[in-house]
Amino acid sequence: MIKNVVLLTSLLFMGVVHSVQAQTFKAGDYVDVRTGGVWAPCTVSQPVLYSGKVGGYMASCGPNEEGTFALTDVRARAATAEDKRV
C-alpha cells in the first residue's frame, strides 16, 4: 500500500514538473528570465529550436541586453502591483 502511494506521488510530481517545463512562449510575450540568480523582466524575441523542439528562448531584457536562455531560466511574468491594479 505505501509503495503504491509513493509511486503515485512520484508520478504526479513528474507530471507537474513536466507541465511547468512544457510552457511555451512566442515572440513578444513578456517573461521573467533568471540571470545571475535574479529574475529580470524580459520580452521573448524568438524560440530556439533543438531537434525540432523548443529548447530555449532568445529574449531582450533592455535596449542593449539580448541573450539565449534555457527553458529552466524562463517563466511566465509574475503580475506586478500595477498589473493587478488594472
Layout of helices and strands:
Blueprint: H1 2-21, E1 30-35, E2 38-50, E3 53-62, E4 65-70, E5 74-76, H2 81-85
Antiparallel strand pairs: 1-2, 1-5, 2-3, 3-4
Summed up, what is this model?
The protein is α+β, with helices and mostly antiparallel strands and 86 residues long. The protein is 29% helix and 44% strand. The chain has 2 helices and 5 strands, in the order H-E-E-E-E-E-H.
Key traits:
single chain, 86 residues, alpha+beta, five-stranded antiparallel β-sheet, 5 strands, 44% strand, globular
What share of the residues does DSSP label as strand, in percent?
Answer: 35-45%
Total number of strands: 5
The stretches of 5 or more residues where confidence is low (pLDDT under 50) are 3-20
Q: Tell me, what's the shape?
A: globular
Distance between the termini: 50 Å
Biggest sheet descriptor: 5 strands, antiparallel
Q: H/E order of the elements?
A: HEEEEEH
Structural class: alpha+beta
Which bin fits the share of residues in helices?
25-40%
Strand order of the largest sheet: 4-3-2-1-5
Instruction: Give me the oligomer status.
Output: single chain
The number of distinct helices, counting runs of at least 4 residues, comes to: 2
